[in-house]
Amino acid sequence: MIPTLLGITIVVFAISKIAPGDPVSLSVGASGQMDAERAGDLRAARMRLYGLDKPVYVQYADWLGHVVRLDFGDSIKHRRPVIKLIKERLPITLTLNLIALAIVYAVSLPVGILAAVKHGRFFDRASSVILLMLWSLPVMWVGQMLIGYFTGPTPLKAGWFPPAGLSSNYAESASGAPFLPWLADRLWHLVLPVLCLSYTGFAYLAKQVRAAMLDSLQMDYVRTARAKGLSEPAVILRHAFPNSIIPLITIMATLLPAMFAGSVIIEKIFSIPGMGLLAFEAVTNRDYNVVMAVATIAGVLNLVGLLFGDIAYAIADPRISFDRPAPAKRHAEPSAV
Amino acid sequence: MNGDDTILNFRFSIGNRRSAIGNQLSVEGLCVGFFTQACPETGLSRAKSRGRGNGVVPAVQDVSFSIKKGQTFALVGESGCGKTATALAIMRLLPAGQSRVVQGKILFEGRNLLELSEKQMRLIRGSKISMVFQEPATSLNPVYTVGDQIAEAIELHQNKNAGQAWEDAAAILRKVGIADPERRALEYPHRLSGGMQQRVMIAMAISCNPVLLIADEPTTALDTTVQAQILDLLDDLRKQNGMSILLITHNLGVAAQRADIIAVMYASRLVEIADSRQLLAQPHHPYTQGLLRSLPRLGSPPTGSGVERLQTIPGTVPEALHLPGGCKFHPRCRVGCADMRCRKIEPALREIQPGRWAACWRAPGYE
Amino acid sequence: MSKQSQERPNWGLSYGELVWRRFRKSRLNMACLIFVAFLLLLAVFAPFLASDRPFIVRIDGKLHFPLFKNLQLADYCIFLAAGVASLQLFVGSRRQNRKFRILSPVCCLLYVGLGSMLILAFVPRRLDATDYRALIASGKASNAVFPPIPYGYDRTNLELCRQPPSRRHWLGTDDVGTDVLCRLIHGSRISLAVGFVAVGISTIIGIVAGAILGYFGGKVDFIGMRIVEAVMAIPVFFLIITMMAFFPRSILNIMIIIGITGWTGSARFIRAEFLKLRRQDFVQAAISLALPLRSILFRHMLPNAIAPVLVNATFGISSAIFIEAALSFLGFGVAPPTPSWGQMLSLGVSTTGRFLWWLTLFPGLAIFLTVMAYNLAGEGLRDAIDPPRAGTALVSPALTGRVPPAVPGVNTAEGGRKTR
Lengths: 337, 367, 420
Prior knowledge:
Chain B is an alpha/beta fold.
């Protein structure tokens, strides 16, 4: 875990160093009016100020020291510490993603199981094609179309959903507003963004569930369960399904980064003030500190997600214990016969 | 020949019905086919027929036998001869999209199992007829404890609540010879050795006191020392509970030691059924004779040049898609390969003596 | 191909031919392949389909050929590459010569890849800014033969901006008055170029990295996997936009960046396969013959390990096309006037909040169909390489309600007894 964390910081730092140009030139600008000597002095002074005259590894160590203390510097555009910006924005993105994740799992599991059970029949083949179509739909297209057709107010289209933002204006300004209407308003604003964020994950996960269930249904213990006289639903849900959960947990670790990425586009389309929008604005404005901070934090969050996935995997599969590696399926520890 | 055959058939089937009384299980004329994308009629392989064949491979052809109460009935044969398919057909556990019982009857407690609805069959599986499978390691669900899995069967069939079912499970584990059963019941299957896993499987199978236990190669995956223990256990349980055992094995020695009746299968057909001692003393079918002859014996005298070669049955088992005409064994048979009758006409299984069946034109008393 | 295998009756079909046969069996796969070929044709012949310079025009009595004279270096390179590729595809499949068959696809890909990179990076512009339509309107020119879509992708016409589809502009115009259909066709070049080149880069890096990691194992593998994990830990899209922040915007940069961030998938597949193959006897034999390392890795081991990478590459193409569209949508991709589907999509909701449906529907549909075609092709390829078990129903008919089909009675004996 630690080496990977270090690796992330190295990668992010390397990108910022490889890039052409440096903050000094940007801030000094094309100082065409100054004479060369003064311009040179100014550059040198600025370089010393930013620590850019030190060797690369010292710069990296400095930066890493700051990062560990969660000091990412200041945002050029907002003129505030970056970490404060992130603290404001991160919870929104996390909420969006976690709700979307829950919906993805809630919908994919039944669809995937059903497709595996009715393998080869119409439901399976139809759902397979539909899922692939969903997976191929570009997020920005869906977002735009939803905004165009489902948000108001336009004469032809129904103004069912609000087009932008996280809450309507009146809700923000009313202090001491009752909780439930505020919550309802928030949720209403979240419907379209969450929908856009979740449909790709849903398509991906449903296919994985189906594949895992197909594998599981062929196992010998399913045959044993039938030989015991269990009904088919019991065989599928009590015996086949718990065994196929295990790979699905680790899939969560790959879903999360994909969702983070989707956040950027969706937050931009729906104007939701989250971390994705922050990243977008930072890149547009060349706000380097923010960009590096966002990249690092995204990497760290990803690793945290992977860690959770590993822990959940160990809990779910009784064959795994923390002090020894996972045995192969047919391994049996010898004990007295 | 047709007319004669019909009369003999009739006699044979009447004989079957007479002895049907007192039988635990009676299989008549069972035929099971597996679907394939090849075309067995034209003999094309899967690749050449471009996956468009809708052929059926005969896995079990015309199998008839009966098992009496309290008997151990061994079904012996090589891999791929159809023994497991027969067992699965009895339990109606054949994979639904890949195979089908083409015809036949399986009479159990006065009913034809093949005609029962799935719901009725579920009442029988696990409680009246149960099955023990070959690989206990993969046949036990890895995410549930051993006790859970046994208790599940008890809860299902005996209308007991979870607590009682758990106590029963512990009691059965003690019965199958597992020490400290209360603690063992809390273990997951992967922590048990192969022998213990098979004992757990047997415990699961007998938990509801079935009248017929089908054991499909129960000891093949185990060490030799453990094999004897498991077979002894099965014997003891049979005597205690009065149940019958259908023992499926490819090991003639095991069958000889443990079974009352041995049935030999070859290439999806039964070729001989006899009392085990009679079979070993005097096999009538050339295949059985070949099998017994091929067993190496200690201390046998050298022949001729002082070096004795192991006897084998020449040739190989025919492919299911390309079964020979006539008697399926005739290409490998010492006497049958030259006999026109063996080459042209399939011999049916006939009772050549009371309690002995054989399917060979040259068996004494066959015609 | 089948003729060859008949001439060598005992040699059977090669692995590639087997996969191709299985792939060909599904109509969906062939439809995807046809669509992909159609897109490639669109991309290659774009200037002949949509341009505001006519094929022939008569000015002052003399015949001019403005379209042909104004073909850019880019166009020539693309034509040449496409020609060579198709020639090799047809000729190579009929030749018996094994060496030719192996070399030529590799050369094709290299040529096409390098060619596209060069052209799009160093496009020389010899612009002929003559407005031929105006000339014709004013009567100075006559007898003009225009391409089917007589609009240029870089010609702005501010009077006609933001027009919905009409008889003149079949798919409408965008915010500077350029014809949408024309920009769609030319945009396919960008999308496909980015797709193929980026995937080419990432696959090559991935294969080399994975091969080294898988072959050497031990410490090299350990360190290498840490690097792979570090790169994989950062969400790819974040990495890409991070890099877009630091590097100047150009199509070459986009290709390189998508390529550099996408190699980890291929690397993992190749590493896994190589770790398995390393222990196999034929590799041990090659090593014991003291064959050079590059020969062992790329001639002996790689063809056995390439299958999952090809599937990954196909999905990678669709993913690269999507990423390029997303980047252009966000404004980080290619700059106008270079046409890009994503950039057109971003114009769908104007700054005043007006919803321009034709600018949302058509580019989005183009992206969707292209991505779906490659995804379906990738799935078809995966099924062709590793066919799933046929017709297994794993659940009892009681639940599915499906009755097995009637099966003809099995012949039980030569004598003709069928049923009892």
